Each structure stands twice: as structure tokens, then as C-alpha cells.
Amino acid sequence: MSDMDKAAQEVKLTSAKVANQLVQVYYDALQNNRPNMMNFYAPTATVTWSGFNYDSVQSFFAEFMSNLPSISVNLSSVDAQAVLSHVIGPSTPSLITILILGTISFGSEPAENFSQTLVIQADPGTTMFRIVRDVFRLV
Amino acid sequence: MQSTTRERKSYSLQMASAQLAKRRRATNRNRGGPERKDNRNPNRPTVRTDPSQRRLRIEGLGEINISEARDFLRTRQRTAEIVTFEQDHLGVDISLKDPEHYSRCLKLSQTCFNGRTAIVKTIYTLPLSHILILSRILVEACLSKDEGSDDGTNKVDLRGLVSHPAIVENDIKVDFSDSLFVTALAKIINRQFPDAQTLLMDNNNIKNLRQFNILSQFVPNTINLSLSGNLIGSLDELGHLKSFKSLKNLLCFNNPIAVEPPSNDAVLDEIPHLQTFNGLPLESFSIAGAAVTGTSFKFPENSNFIPEDNRKFVNDFLTNYFSTYDNNRLELGTFYSAEACASISGVPPSHCQADGNFVSRNLLMTSNSSHSKSRFDRNVDLMVIGREAIIRTWFGRPKTEHDLFSFRVDVTPLDSSLFINIHGDVADISDKGNKGSARKVRYSFDRVFILQSLPDGIKIVNDMLSLRNLSGRFTKAMNETNIDNARKVARLLDESFEWSLEFCRKYVANALDCAQILLEFRNTTNLRTDFAADCLERSQWDVKNAMALFEQHRPSMLPEHFRM
């Protein structure tokens, strides 16, 4: 395998691992530790929820998240790809797109399918990823 | 003397009418202009007439004493044509032309006038007592709102008006299809709450909205309207709300039309400027571009793209892409960059899983078992890299037909990339159906395209497709078919429409066949419909297996499992 192929393989694997880890922790926080959720988001992050755009994470949490009842999530599928123009060095992805499919229920309502896209970016100089774009839809 | 306010005021009215009569006799001719206020008693009502002597205006009354009012009118009968009683915020103009009209308004009877023609002005058309009650209910309802629930809009809360104790006690007919009632109510609202932005009209037995354009004239600033819990049966009724020019948000839960939620297009047909319906946005595109500060999607100087027109660009892009995908996969190369990546994940519907070559790239690893890890490692590799490989992959998949009308698209720029999220329905078309006709299997998908501006144009650099069973959430056509089938199934199985609709949603194209099988199985076993359906589902709709399952469980079944 050539060096380029090896690097590409590294990127694939790293992206997959990072995505898997983040998703586990994120949805755990969503269900069990909502006050902590803002930490997942970068300061410049924006959120789109069911077609509504929130310019800032603060407004999303204040106007919307705080009004939701308890949330229960079951994940069905997670996929992730690194955005190749944002690969630092040969093999370190810095921008990863995660596509999640699962079911969600609010309070005691029956569960519904949802699709969520989380775009995560590494803080400069680190391998610490934060969410910069969040797009959620009930499907 | 210690008189009550009421007595004091009616005393004043008597005084006023006596004064006027006296003055009239004294001068023996009509005099225009405002009459002098009686300075002796500051509580005395003021009486004004206009120069033509045709209007009388009596201000400062507390409660209207009907018999005093009648007497007063009698003294003015020769000149008065319109009499206005001002009471607090309430103005009642009573036409004297039609005795029945004013008697209805004031419960006056046997008052004669010499038939002078009157200008029919705005009249409340309801008995004054009813107006007072409605007015009071309105004020009480809005004052008693707990402060915390104030969302900043001026709220008029008429929920459950039809069953309000004061309404029931006084036998007031609250009928929103009666133009007279709606007019009166609208005027009351307009006087009390001219800036009202939120109207709550839940639970009022509202069947049609024909008179609502009257309401929109008097409460024109309405932004939020709630009609939940009523009896609105047809979507066309919503068309009458078009006249609410500022209306943005409409709630219509628990109405007959909400049993099968109408499609966004259908609602927008009726009220084109509406933004949300039952809490969900009506636009199928949401573009975060304008809202995102400090980032913009940059295209090369010589591109045809007009930055302000994100929506058109995305619309054209998606239309072209999916038309190519559906009709000529080999031409998809122009959409992708040379080093693009693509992958397919999700929970594929059963017909996809039957294709042995296809595995979902699911990176979800919830346990640390070695089996889980090795599956993870395999899935990591299931990504396709490079334009040629991607085209080959798509070429190997079944022929498709995308339902663009079902698409819901969210667009988000980030640095120099554009993220497009699509959710919608698609059908796989196989030509191995019965009698040589093509078979369509519908299902749903989510897809993320990441676009970047490259030297050779705007290209897809990442393509993530996720498959799942048909949700039909966004499909108008699907809903119509389901409704149609639900009616047939309800008739066939003698079950409720709601149950039948759920059934049809589950089995979609096969609903009628399944219903037939269910009917026969139910007749054979005499099981209750839902238990019969359960038996069949667990046997994958194989009647022999279902019978075996039934026989197996029969000894432990109870009478309530069977039909009466």
C-alpha cells in the first residue's frame, strides 16, 4: 500500500473512531446531562432544527432546548466522513461530517425517527472536536 | 343620602332628560352644538348633539338602565336618528330605522318614532346584555393569565368560550358561523385589544371558518391563531384565513382535518403567507446562509452563481442531480470532484437487505466485544473514494425514481463549503414484477452533499446516503393513497378509520392485500382484528404459519382475544 493510501486509511479510521466516540457521549448528555450540552458546541456553531435556524448556540439552548421535556434516544445508524480539504498534515482530519439515524421521544410521546447531521471541527492545534453545525429533522 | 352608584347614575339620567325636555320647551327650537355640562353634579352624564341634530351621544353612564334609556329616547324622538350609548370602552350605535333591530339591541319595545330615516351605522347586532357579558369574559380571561406565560404578544384567550359558565347561564348562542355573532365579537375584541397578536379559539365547536374574514378586519394584526379542538372538517376552510394578512403561525390540532395531516403544499395553497402549521415550518427549504455571520460561500469570479440566490442554486442542483441519477447514472461524473467520497448507511429496508452485495456502513459501536470491533473495522472500509469508483457503485444499484415533491432540504454554509441535507422518499424500480410490469418499492432516505467550489466548477466532495423504511411524513401523494386505502380497509374489516389508516401506513402498497388476508384469517380463527393481525405479522403474513402459531397459543387464550 502506498503512503498516500496509508494516509487515506488513517483518515478514514480516525474519523470513524472520533465520530463513534462523540456520538456516544453527545446523546448520553442529551438524555442525562442536558445542562452540559453546550460544551459540545464551538462558540461559532449554528443549529438548524426542523428547518428553523438558530444563529447561536446560546439562543438555541435558551429559546428552545430549555423548553423541551426529557428526551430519550435510540441510535440506529452512524456514518462519518472526513472533509478532505481539511486534512492537516497527511493523516489528521480536522473537519468531520457525521450522519445519524435514530429514534427520539419527547416526554411520554411515542418515539419518532430522526436524522441528524453533526459537523465537527477540531480546535486549532488540538484533536479536540467540537460541533460547528447541527442539522436536525424528524423524518 | 347613601345611594348606590347605580341609583346615583340613573338618577342623573333622569335629571338629564328632564333638563333637556325643559330646555327644549323653553327655546322652542332646535339648537346645535354641545350642551353645557351641568356643573352642579360632576357625575352627571354628558349629552352631546351634532349640529344637524341627528346624532345623540351620551357619555359617562355607569350601567345602562333600560327603562330610563327608553324614556330618554322618547324625549328625543323628533330629532334623534342615531343614539350612541358610551359605556367604558363599549360603544353601541343603534339604528332607529328598524325597530326590531334596536329592540333586539336594547330590549326596547313599543317605542314609537316618527319614521325618520336613519343612517345605519355599525351595530353590534347582539343584545347589549350579551355584549357586556362577552366583554367581561374577555377582560377577565386576559387579566387572569399567569404572568409567566406571557410570550410578549397581546393574547386574546377565547378557548372554550362556548362552554364558559356565564355564556351557558345566560343562554348566549356562541356560533362562529353566525356572521352577527362574529361581528359583535370581533368589534369587542377590537375595542378591548386593538393590538391583539395572538387569538386562541380552541374548543368552540367551530365547524367552518366562513365568517373569519370579518374577524380579520377587526383584529388585523393577528400573528398567531389557534383553532385546536374544533370541528373543522375540510382543508378549504383554512382558505378563509387568507385575509389575516399578518398570520404566521396556525395551530389546528384535534380537528377532523388533522386526522391525516395535510401536506405543506396543501396548506400553503390555502394560506400562502403562513409560516408554520401545527408547530412545524412550511417551507421545504431552510437556508442558514443569511443567518450565519462571518462566513460565506465563495464561488470563483467567473461563475454564474449569484450569491443572494442560494435557494435557486440548490433547487437547480438537486433537480439536475436526481434527474441524472434516475435516468442516466453514467453521467453523474460531472457532479463529483475527482477525489470525492461516498458511503451508504442507515437501516436499509428489507428489499435492500435481500441484495447480498449491500451492507450498511454503520459505524455505531456500542459494545467492546471483538465481534463488534471487527464489524466496525469492516464498516470503516465500506467507503468509496474517487469519482470513477463512485459512479460504478451507483451504477450497480437498482434503478430509482426520486419523489422530489417529498424533499425537505436544509442548506448550511461553512467556510468555503456548502452542506446540503436532503430528506425524502424514493422508489426502487425492478422490472421483474408480475406480468412483466415494473414493480416500485418505496422507501425513504437522508442524504448529505458537501459542495465546494473547485477550479472546474462546483462539485460534490462528500456524499453520504442513509436508507430507511418509508416514513411518508413528507409525501402528499402517499397520504392521499393511504386515506383512500384506509377507507376501503375500514369498510372491509369493519374497523375505525384511524385504525385502518395506521394499518395502511404500515403496509403501504400492500395494505389492501394484507387486509384481505387478515379478513379471511380473522373469519377462520374468530380472533379479534388486532390479535389476528399480530398473529399474521409474526408469521410474515404466511397464512399456514399463522394458523400454526394460532393453534399453538389457543389453549392459553382468553375470551377477550376473540370477536364477540
From TrEMBL, chain A:
Gene3D superfamilies the record matches: 3.10.450.50
Ranges for domain NTF2: 18-138
Keywords: Cytoplasm, Nucleus, Protein transport, Transport
InterPro entries given in the database record: NTF2, NTF2-like_dom_sf, NTF2_dom, Nuclear_transport_factor_2_euk
GO CC annotations, alphabetized: cytoplasm; nucleus
Broad class of where this protein is predominantly found: cytoplasm
Subcellular location per the Swiss-Prot or TrEMBL entry: Cytoplasm; Nucleus
Role, per record: Has a role in nuclear-cytoplasmic transport of proteins and mRNAs.
Protein name listed in UniProt: NTF2-related export protein
Native organism: Fonticula alba
Automatic annotation (TrEMBL), chain B:
Region (Disordered): 1-54
Protein localization: Nucleus
Keyword Nucleus carried by entry: yes
Principal location class: nucleus
Gene3D superfamilies membership: 3.10.450.50, DNA helicase RuvA subunit, C-terminal domain, Ribonuclease Inhibitor
Sequence ranges of Basic and acidic residues compositional bias: 1-10, 32-41
Top-rank lineage group of the source organism: Eukaryota
A GO CC term attached to the entry: nucleus
GO molecular function per UniProt: RNA binding
Keywords: Leucine-rich repeat, mRNA transport, Nucleus, Repeat, Transport
All residue ranges annotated as the NTF2 domain in the record: 313-467
SUPFAM superfamilies documented for this protein: L domain-like, NTF2-like, UBA-like
Keyword Repeat on entry: yes
GO terms of biological process kind: poly(A)+ mRNA export from nucleus
Any Pfam family: NXF_NTF2
Family: Belongs to the NXF family.
Protein name: NTF2 domain-containing protein
